[in-house]
Design a protein that fits this description.
With 409 residues, this protein is α+β, with helices and mostly antiparallel strands. It has helices at residues 8-22, 29-38, 59-69, 79-91, 94-105, 220-235, 258-262, 276-285, 292-319, 327-350, 366-374, 384-395, 404-407; strands at residues 111-114, 130-134, 137-144, 155-161, 172-178, 184-189, 198-209, 213-214. The protein folds into three domains: 8-77 and 243-260, no CATH class; 110-233, Butyryl-CoA Dehydrogenase, subunit A, domain 2 (Beta Barrel), CATH 2.40.110; 272-404, Butyryl-CoA Dehydrogenase, subunit A, domain 3 (Up-down Bundle), CATH 1.20.140. The chain has 13 helices and eight strands. It has a four-stranded mixed beta sheet with strand order 1-4-5-8. Strands 2-3-7-6 form a four-stranded antiparallel beta sheet, with no helix packed on it.
Length: 409
């Protein structure tokens, strides 16, 4: 999936022309999104054979901005588009690709990630959730945690241990698991922001078909690395992880009139990143746009955004060719810098006003919420410490960090 050059203005014009010819505010959201997906606008950065247009990653932002300017409902997003679709396209069978990827592009289903466990966060391969073969099905028992948007999801990207008699990395398999079934319990985890973006998920003899095993039995660790690569590269430039309106029937938008859905403003909690443009506007509003310290901080943030985008592009390009160890991890570290750097600028500009929560805070307390949430950026998608270990060991060839039991001997 190479990254050819493209003219953003020409692309925006092409999208605007397409919208002018096809936008129908009286269509249902599901019908409109099907038309958008068929035209390749849901994921224009995917290659044509994946249902996209083979454009650079930034094309997704250009396309979304064009939809917003036209007051047309934007394409769907979400974790299915960010991680599940490219993973299944990479490792899935033709039947799995046909069955799962097209509904994601059309916004008909929502996905969540079922990786982390209470006892296996940083050491992901130490997971204990079990999947036992039962004829043409697998029965799953265990627990996952920190699963973003699980309450709204229809399917989960599940990794489970399918063989306990081999080294831990070799006994893992990757499944596409339907969440709406007996044996699956989802409980929201209330954050310090007051929202419940994350969830814990319990499996008590949940069932997944053998046909939903992606990448082959025991090959889940390799499939997982692909998922993580797309996650880290996808959020590496500080991009939003959550699409709006939400995909899938649980989001409540599919049967709405598209014109009505286009007029629904996303909740402030949907945006976790303070954008560069809004920080520049805030600096002007606070009469700090000529402050050399503010200008320097904004320049550093702009540089981080560009290097994050470039590194993410390079990571996708190199990994497809079996190279580029550590690039997606570097991209994830840049994302942490973007999250925390943008919040630091916002707090500097606002001073004590930045601590006001909703409804008294600026924009309903958006800046104070971003401040509280920014600490999570060092954890989700893999902790910063783990990213640095991977970069050191796999990219730079440094000695492996000893395990705890080795350090205490």
């Amino acid at each position: 999936m190479s990254e050819p050059d493209t003219d953003d203005h020409a692309l925006a014009t092409e999208v605007a022309d397409w919208i002018a010819q096809h936008w129908d505010p009286d269509a249902t959201v599901v019908d409109w999104w099907r038309l958008v997906a068929d035209a390749g606008w849901t994921a224009p950065h995917f290659p044509a054979e994946w249902g996209g247009r083979g454009l650079p990653r930034r094309a997704q932002s250009v396309v979304h901005n064009a939809f917003h300017r036209a007051r047309a409902l934007a394409p769907p997003g979400g974790l299915g588009l960010l991680m599940a679709a490219p993973t299944i396209r990479t490792h899935g069978t033709p039947e799995q690709i046909d069955r799962y990827v097209a509904p994601i592009l059309r916004g008909e289903v929502a996905w969540c990630q079922l990786f982390s466990e209470p006892g296996a966060g940083s050491d992901l391969a130490g997971l204990s959730t079990r999947a036992l073969r039962d004829g043409d099905k697998w029965r799953v028992t265990g627990q996952k945690v920190w699963s973003s948007q699980a309450m709204e999801a229809d399917f989960g990207m599940l990794i489970a241990r399918t063989n306990v008699d081999v080294p831990k990395h070799a006994g893992i398999s990757w499944f596409a698991l339907a969440l709406d079934q007996p044996g699956v319990t989802i409980r929201p985890l209330r954050e310090s922001t007051g929202h419940a973006h994350f969830n814990e998920v319990f499996f008590d003899d949940a069932v997944v078909d053998h046909s939903d095993l992606v990448g082959g039995e025991g090959n889940g660790w390799a499939v997982t690395q692909t998922t993580l690569m797309f996650e880290r590269a996808g959020i590496g430039a500080g991009g939003a992880m959550v699409g709006f309106p939400p995909a899938g029937p649980k989001g409540g938008f599919l049967d709405l009139r598209a014109g009505d859905a286009a007029g629904v403003a996303p909740p402030e909690s949907n945006y976790k990143v303070l954008t560069f443009d809004e920080l520049v506007a805030l600096a002007r509003e606070r009469d700090r746009n000529h402050d050399p310290h503010v200008r320097q901080a904004l320049a550093r943030l702009a540089a981080d955004r560009l290097t994050g985008e470039w590194t993410a592009k390079r990571a996708r390009h190199e990994i497809e060719r079996g190279r580029g160890a550590g690039l997606a991890n570097i991209s994830k570290l840049v994302q942490t810098r973007i999250m925390k750097g943008s919040v630091a600028i916002g707090m500097d500009l606002l001073g004590a006003d930045g601590l006001l929560w909703q409804p008294d805070g600026l924009r309903g307390g958006r800046y104070s919420e971003a401040l509280v949430f920014s600490t999570a950026s060092s954890i989700y998608g893999g902790t910063d410490q783990i990213q640095r270990n991977i970069i050191g060991e796999r990219a730079l060839g440094l000695p492996r960090e000893p395990k705890q039991e080795e350090r205490t001997q």
